[in-house]
Structures are given as C-alpha cells and as structure tokens.
Design brief:
This protein is an alpha+beta fold. It has a 3-stranded antiparallel beta sheet. The longest helix has 15 residues.
C-alpha cells in the first residue's frame, strides 16, 4: 500500500484502535512515535503508521 492510497484515520479512530486516550495519542504524535499528517486543520494518521507503532511496541516488549 502506498502513502497515496493509505487509509487515513482520525485521532478518535486511532484512540479506539489503540484503546488510548486523546492526550496519549497526541503525545505519541508530538513525540513522533506515531506518524501523522495534517490535512487542512485536521490531523490524520495513516493506518500503516498505527500498525508500525504496534509492531514496534511488541518488539520492545519482547
């Protein structure tokens, strides 16, 4: 999947998928642990970035 065709998630969608609060998701974005883009005034997170974040967390825990 290329970036151009990647599914973009809203912060509430990321919150639901990761079962995290809004502040935590924005902290992950600010610290660049979770990749995001800005579209207009809206923040969007590529689905691949969420998967990469989860994979990285699993690797760190192992």
């Amino acid at each position: 999947m290329t970036t151009a065709t990647a599914e973009l998630l809203t912060v509430p969608e990321v919150m639901k998928r990761l079962k995290l609060g809004r502040s935590t998701v924005y902290d992950l974005i600010r610290s660049r642990r979770l990749v995001s883009i800005t579209v207009g005034r809206s923040r969007r997170v590529p689905l691949d970035a969420v998967r990469d974040f989860i994979d990285h967390q699993i690797e760190e825990a192992a």
